[in-house]
Amino acid sequence: xxxxxxxxxxxxxxxxxxxxxxxxxxxxxxxxxxxxxxxxxxxxxxxxxxxxxxxxxxxxxxxxxxxxxxxxxxxxxxxxxxxxxxxxxxxxxxxxxxxxxxxxxxxxxxxxxxxxxxxxxxxxxxxxxxxxxxxxxxxxxxxxxxxxxxxxxxxxxxxxxxxxxxxxxxxxxxxxxxxxxxxxxxxxxxxxxxxxxxxxxxxxxxxxxxxxxxxxxxxxxxxxxxxxxxxxxxxxxxxxxxxxxxxxxxxxxxxxxxxxxxxxxxxxxxxxxxxxxxxxxxxxxxxxxxxxxxxxxxxxxxxxxxxxxxxxxxxxxxxxxxxxxxxxxxxxxxxxxxxxxxxxxxxxxxxxxxxxxxxxxxxxxxxxxxxxxxxxxxxxxxxxxxxxxxxxxxxxxxxxxxxxxxxxxxxxxxxxxxxxxxxxx
Length: 425
Known about the structure:
13 strands, Rossmann fold, six-stranded parallel β-sheet
């Protein structure tokens, strides 16, 4: 039985939350003992996302065997006021694994004390492998000695310091970098990371949860009519994510006669700026700004079109989930996107055009309903083949075995992604 310690980084992105939730659920069938170490803000976010959505009303919330450690390295008394905010989180996390989970808050943005705390935990209760989610989590995990280490990366936007860190912790045996796309693997190798420590494992999509959310009342709670067309912008909303141009394209006056709604997720500064801009436009553009605590994956599940317009590297987990939820995809043809989406096969692509405006091309793609409807059905079938939770769990389990034994990291692991074909075939 492999004992796994998951370490989350301080980014706390929705992609990490849903993928860890999917993986934990998949590995639970194989009776993996698990710990989750996370910064406090990330732990709070986990409460309202994948873990609670998967378990609420399905698995019992009793029998929580959680262990909380503050920065001092001593257990936090169960009656402590500092313990209260995490009780529900621990129950939900524990119920996912039927009680076989420890949850440890780590100091936020401080890898040295977090590493010392994690080392204290592992000395008290050893793990066979550490699964670090992101760059800062890898910085924390490297301080724990020679425990086999896997770093999971889902965002191809690396800084030079990120690459240097990964090169410094790389070792010939008992180490691997699990990449969610081939682009990430290629960027690592170009940066000098040894190719034989990298492997591609695609994210898992929770189809059962998607179906449950689509049948729920979230659309009604947000004031969206059943017949309305819902366009969602990707999360997180950033200046480089292209959400501003996507909003302008979706709110052109020629579309106001169509009953549609535009969801701007999250509560970031850029999201607030986009909302303010949308509210200043003439007429009713159908703008919806959900509460920040509504998980993005739920908003995506109730949408009809995902419109993402980055001009550079961007995480593509939202593409996998959109495909699984039968949400049509409109995106810019940047390398991160074209690895998964082929124009007029499983989505519609727009040329990034250098510094030119993307508003009109995006609007034209949005108007092509026939192409979007055809692409969404193709994409849904491909998602079942490539992004199942079972496959994610099986491949990650095999990676654990490879790293612990010192075998080649990609032994027995094949890229599950479909091979896109041209629209003319």
